[in-house]
Amino acid sequence: MSKITILCIEDEAEIRTLVVEELEDAGFATLQASNGREGLEMMLTKWPDIVICDITMPEMDGHQVLAEIQLNHPELSNVPFIFLTAMSDKDNMITGLQSGAADYLTKPIDFDILMAKITGCVTRIENDRKTGRAF
Amino acid sequence: MLRYEKQSKDAPPWLQAAGRKILRLGYSDHVIGEIIPDVLRVIVETVPLELIPKAAIYLKDKASMKETLAGFYNFHWSQIETLIEPAGNPHSVSDADSKLTRLQVPITAPGHEPLGTLVVYYGTEGEYGHLEALTDLVRDLATVVTHKLHSDDEQPRSARGTIIANGSATENPAMNDNVFELLRTTIDSFPGGICVLLDDLTVAMTNRRIYEILDLPEHMFPPGCNFADILRYYAERGEYGPGDVEKLAQARIRRAKLFVDHAFDRETVSGRVLEVRTTPISGGGCILTYLDVTARKRAERELMHHRDRLEDLVSKRTAEIEQQARKLEHLLDHERRVNEQQRQFVAMASHEFRTPLAIIDGAAQRLMRSKAEITPDFIGDKVDKIRGSVSRMVGLMNSILAVGRLDHGLIDINPEPCAIEELIRSCAANQRDITPSQRFILDLDNLPETIVADRSALHQVFTNLFSNAVKYAPGSPYVFIRGWTDATHVHVSVTDRGVGIDAEDLPKMFQRYFRARTSSGIAGTGIGLNLVQQIVELHKGKISVTSKIDQGTVFTVVLPIGIEQQPNSITPETQVA
């Protein structure tokens, strides 16, 4: 079974490297994008298994990325999409979850919770693979 | 029948050809409304030939269709020629000879042969009113005449003094006396003075009240006296103002003899106001009426005065209310802006503090969670991240505190000679240390060596501008900084090739916490430029911005070379505005 690949879309380099470091430490393959547009392109070309995405970013923000996936790339819409953002207000959270985000986590990041969410996603992905339900 | 004879000389051939049955009549239908509402008044005068009484005063109340006797006063005369002709249908034709229009109405009575036609000649419509009114009049007349012809059995009547009353005439002198008595009573009951003048100004008839109203001794001016004497008496008494009495009197006498239909107000020497009306009688003479309108005029004046005062008061109050509304609007506007600022501040602060906190917290967690061997490099990396974030937060706090201090007028600037070129170079160097890939192209040769300014404040200005030029131009490494001088000021422009600013956002760029649309996704507080502007303004300088989307932005700072009189701080009041 191939390694699970996780894409981290985050404009703050410092945060991105910390998240990537944590993910690699846990044995995942990682991809990095420093803004929404780059992240969207990577999703379309590299097909990551899980996406962790910031909201406030240049070029294209996190909401726009997810909306673009749902609207124009439905084949990617069951890729778990986790928001990881400093936007802690309810409006942003509701918008994100309504658009189909798997979860909405706020900064500062609690790595235990982030990793628990990832583990949950991984379990489902692996089950899907075993039963042939997805790609 | 002097009047008729006078007119008959001038009578056109058709009138003379009409033979024996000629009427003369006049009517009034407007002023009379003041005394007996909606009444049509007709006066018929016959020529001396035959048939129709010499004079008839006749009123027809249109509403009740009752015919009643009328008084003499206050009616408007127009003279119309009429004659009785063989019957025909009502129609109007132009008479070429007379240049008059001729309106014909048959005179009929139920159960009788047509008795003739009443014909009215009239000039222009403007002269005699509307054709419709005229037609009505003639119809009424025709009815009266018919009635007369019928009831009088075609017997010639005495021409003089017969009056048609209540639709029937009488030749009984006692009855006629009665009618005259009735007329006198009517005139006496008029609330003002009435005076009937003949064409030589002889006073033919008056009522009693006129002596009272004109303040005239009755014994001096009994009916039969001449009105000219009254005018002379008045002139002597000073009623017509100062001047030669005889001249004043003659002027009045001349005017009175014109018998023009008119009305005016006159103030007497005793201070009363009289409303005087002159109503000409056909063929000469007139009827004068006098009403004491002193009380009414006074009331009118008072009313006017009150109305004027009320208008003043209302407009004053309105102005006050408008001013208050404007003030409130202004306050509300201010309140809205403050609220909007507050909201923007909370959103900004929450995001801008959380990001470095996330880095600090993330680095600390990584130190704990790392599964690999912890190397000094690993620790060093995390510590750098933590310290970097802490200093980012300190910077954030400082700028928030700085605007807070500015708001409260607590920031002083201490102007002293300041090496501007060196200051700009050092700010650029600092920024390059933070973002080594950036290229600053400096052209500062035309700056003076020093200007009078607060060095640390200007340091903040240029640091902010340079870091913006880098921050909002991802992937464009060049920032152009140019300095030049005019007689009194230095100019420094900072040009980037960055994301640019919407034209709509440009005017708001220096508002506190405002962030342009194009800044979305780029960390920032919306404080920097506001702070920069305030510092520049404390130096009596100016800052401006021009920009094009996707092409870049130019900020230009203009500072006086020497500040003559330096305010130490700005007051909170100037902040609000």
Automatic annotation (TrEMBL), chain A:
Gene3D superfamilies assigned: 3.40.50.2300
Residue numbers carrying 4-aspartylphosphate: D54
Entry keyword set: Phosphoprotein, Transcription, Transcription regulation
GO BP, one annotated term: phosphorelay signal transduction system
Keyword Phosphoprotein attributed: yes
Residue span, Response regulatory domain: 5-122
Top-level lineage group: Bacteria
Pfam families for the chain: Response_reg
Listed PANTHER family: RESPONSE REGULATORY DOMAIN-CONTAINING PROTEIN (PTHR44591:SF3), STRESS RESPONSE REGULATOR PROTEIN 1 (PTHR44591)
Protein name: Response regulator receiver domain-containing protein
Lineage of the species this protein comes from: Bacteria, Pseudomonadati, Pseudomonadota, Alphaproteobacteria, Hyphomicrobiales
From TrEMBL, chain B:
Identification of the protein by name: histidine kinase
GO molecular function: phosphorelay sensor kinase activity
Coiled coil start-end: none
Enzyme Commission (EC) number: 2.7.13.3
Reaction(s) this enzyme catalyzes, per UniProt: ATP + protein L-histidine = ADP + protein N-phospho-L-histidine
Keyword Iron in record: no
Keywords from the UniProt entry: Kinase, Phosphoprotein, Transferase, Two-component regulatory system
Entries under CDD domains matching the protein: HisKA
Organism, as annotated: Hoeflea halophila
